[in-house]
Write a structure and sequence with these properties.
This protein is mostly helical. Helices cover 50% and strands 2% of the residues. The longest helix has 14 residues. The protein is elongated. Bound molecules: heme C (4 copies).
Length: 410
């Protein structure tokens, strides 16, 4: 970089900054970065000389870890070349205040004065960003099948009895659509643990892992609910009258509003009658159902079964989990297209080191690194999504936007 080179800002950035300055007050409230004030934005007016002086600061204080080019070769140390200058400045102040914990960074910046912080921020912001830390040409790791697809695959063995997509075609076999995953998982675990006695179901589910059970439950919950195809022999109208005492728990028309109470709408009638019998006899022991079942005789149970079998089942209130790409769309709202932030407060994350991205996302999730936005955003991320998003951003191409170098004036 030429000593006397003049630095000016892209017009686009300037425009966005004028807007940002206007919202400075609210920034301080919404972004947990410490206090953002006009001084933090001074860095964007840095001159060529400031940048040159910033380079000298970097040579003495930062080079061992971040390199002079701002591209890290060390695990856990982030790339900072081409990072948004206001963000760099803010973070250095945050470390200085101790708000990102006691670590090597905090110790490094502890005694730096504001001028040096401003200049070193300008210097690293002026550099070319790192190449994607996972080359974009690298073969993408085979995407792990998502939860729903895995659930479908694991449920292949269940369709023979429970019907394709969980709608029973066989008398005595329960439909599995319209059941809340919470109830579904509890039922499987009750078979596994022997609290719910059914040797065949026990054998069928004993090898399933917790994840497989969750995925299967999710898969069935997302299938189109339809009534079982085996109508009952009871009197549905009489059943409707008898069902008055069931509504409080099982919902109007048998659509339950509680996750742990099963919906009965559209349930297979012969299974229904058998279930009532087993609650009554105690072979399916459940404190809640024992009372209601003991007052129901066989004929009434058939009527209840016919009534509920005629009711339209509904899908439980669960959403399909978002994929990595769908999550990334949400992240990009603040971090810019493919992680190339144009908002001075949000860091660019394109081409950042994958290990650093993972580490940081986990630390927001655990609440170790504080940021209102990021704590909310990472709440719903499981391990697979954290890894997926880190890989996704590590392979994005980073664009430098901060400075445009003009030839020195003649
Ligand atoms: C001893 C090694 C070391 C030195 C020296 C060091 N850093 Fe760091 N730096 C780190 C590590 C490790 C992290 C990540 C820490 C964390 O997770 O909070 C980091 C994080 C940062 C961040 C936050 C990046 C982000 O994306 O949020 C900035 C900015 C930064 N360093 C700038 C500097 C500057 C400027 C200097 C010199 C004045 C410097 N560092 C000196 C190791 C170092
Ligand atoms: C050979 C037939 C058969 C196969 C295969 C089968 N099931 Fe079942 N399933 C049954 C029967 C019969 C019942 C009713 C048992 C009872 O009375 O408790 C049942 C009950 C259930 C229930 C409880 C439903 C409710 O409303 O409480 C769930 C959940 C379930 N099965 C899931 C599965 C899953 C998941 C698979 C595949 C891994 C599977 N089943 C494979 C026959 C089968
Ligand atoms: C106090 C709440 C409550 C009332 C009242 C109640 N139930 Fe239940 N019912 C439950 C709960 C909770 C379960 C799940 C128990 C289990 O895990 O075995 C259940 C399970 C059932 C099942 C088994 C469903 C399946 O998919 O395996 C049937 C059938 C049933 N109830 C029918 C009835 C009928 C008919 C009535 C009215 C006569 C009734 N219930 C009243 C709470 C209630
Ligand atoms: C509402 C705006 C917003 C959204 C949406 C958002 N972020 Fe952030 N993100 C921020 C802000 C502001 C910071 C800086 C917070 C701080 O100082 O710790 C940040 C920081 C980060 C960092 C730390 C960068 C560094 O260099 O240390 C990573 C990584 C990150 N976000 C990833 C994501 C991912 C992945 C998503 C989507 C799941 C996401 N963000 C969604 C605003 C947002």
């Amino acid at each position: 970089m030429k000593r006397n080179a003049q630095f000016v800002f892209l017009k686009r950035l300037l425009t966005s900054l004028v807007g940002s300055l206007a919202v400075t007050a609210s920034v301080a409230q919404t972004v947990n970065l410490g206090t953002v004030n006009v001084a933090d934005f001074k860095v964007v007016y840095a001159t060529g000389q400031d940048v040159a002086e910033g380079k000298r600061v970097a040579e003495t204080m930062c080079v061992n870890c971040h390199g002079l080019n701002g591209v890290s070769t060390q695990k856990g140390v982030p790339n900072i070349a081409g990072q948004r200058p206001v963000y760099l400045h803010l973070e250095l102040k945050v470390y200085q205040a101790g708000a990102r914990g006691v670590n090597t960074m905090a110790n490094t910046v502890k005694y730096m004065n504001d001028d040096a912080i401003m200049k070193v921020s300008a210097y690293y912001a002026s550099l070319e960003p790192a190449e994607a830390s996972i080359p974009s040409t690298a073969k993408a790791a085979p995407a792990k099948p998502d939860a729903v697809a895995s659930g479908k695959a694991a449920a292949a063995a269940c369709g023979g009895c429970h019907g394709d997509a969980g709608v029973s075609k066989t008398a005595g076999m329960p439909s599995l659509v319209g059941l809340d995953p919470k109830y579904f998982v509890a039922a499987i675990n009750a078979y596994k643990g022997g609290q719910r006695k059914h040797d065949m179901m026990k054998a069928l589910v004993s090898e399933l892992t917790e994840t497989e059970i969750n995925n299967i439950a999710l898969y069935y919950a997302l299938q189109k609910p339809e009534k079982a195809q085996t109508p009952g022999t009871g009197n549905a109208a009489a059943g409707k009258t008898a069902a008055a005492g069931c509504v409080g728990c099982h919902g109007e028309g048998g659509v339950s509003g509680q996750a742990t109470t099963p919906s009965l709408a559209g349930q297979e009638s012969q299974y229904f009658v058998a279930a009532m019998r087993s609650y009554k006899e105690g072979s399916r022991s459940d404190a809640t159902m024992k009372g209601p079942a003991s007052s129901v005789d066989e004929a009434t149970a058939k009527n209840l079964a016919a009534f509920y079998a005629s009711q339209a089942p509904q899908a439980p209130k669960v959403g399909r989990p978002l994929t990595v790409a769908e999550w990334a769309e949400r992240c990009d709202r603040c971090h810019g297209v493919n992680g190339n932030s144009t908002d001075p407060r949000s860091p660019a994350i394109a081409s950042q080191r994958v290990d650093y991205l993972e580490k940081v996302l986990r630390s927001y999730k655990k609440g170790e690194r504080k940021s209102k936005e990021m704590v909310v955003m990472t709440e719903g991320l499981d391990d697979a999504l954290v890894e997926g998003l880190a890989k996704y951003y590590a392979r994005q191409k980073a664009r430098a936007i901060a400075y445009l170098v003009l030839p020195p004036p003649k």
